[in-house]
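Protocol step 4 of 6: structure prediction from sequence.
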Amino acid sequence: MSRTTYYYEPDATKDQLVVDALLAAVERYPRYGFKKLFVKLRQLGFAWNHKRVHRIYCMLKLNLKRKGKKRLPTRMAISLVIPNAINKTWSADFMSDGLMCGRKFRTFNVVDDFNREALAIEVDLSLPAQRVIRVLDNIASSRGYPDAVRLDNGPEFISEALANWAVLHGVKLQFIQPGKPTQNSFIERFNRTFREEVLDFYLFKNLNEIRQISEQWLMQYNEERPHESLGNMSPNQYKLKYSQSVDSTNLWH
């Protein structure tokens, strides 16, 4: 080792001007990356080379954090077929709206594709995957688990927790292709009706008011509201007609 290298002491103050200039540029342009900041320094008359500026830029940890884009697996288009019995396929989706105070809330809606029966409208400020699982379990406790659930690619639906739940109960998760809401038309049509007749019709003061109105509307929807696609019968009337036809077929055999 040479004597000059051994006795060399770095000057901690020689980069102070670069540090001050960089921090001032970052404060003025907080969303600029290194390349744009370096250009701005050059435009201000500073002649430092890019390697020196980049070294100090990294030393100050000014690098912009990039949020990685989560890649979805390839989704195959699944034809929208009306099941031939209840509990074959459920469709689920989220909606959002706001209280009078401006605070946002969400609803988690589930319907049976066979007779368009609304199985649940869960309302809260936040509805994570565990809450979704709880709602599905509550529905299944009275009518059993479906063969499949049709979903979009929301973070709650593609979570590991929901995937484990599906494996545990033998439920197939059918994901629609991103940007193709028509592949989930049954729940999309329900959402439109729910928005027109409830969310856009009332002003809500609190969550309890939303839950009460939604519960009353849900009973009316299932028991009284005629559906053209069901021959102007309500979901419950259509289900009753189907049950009677199945019973008569079994007696015949």
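Step 5 (inspection) to follow. The first helix runs from residue 3 to 6.
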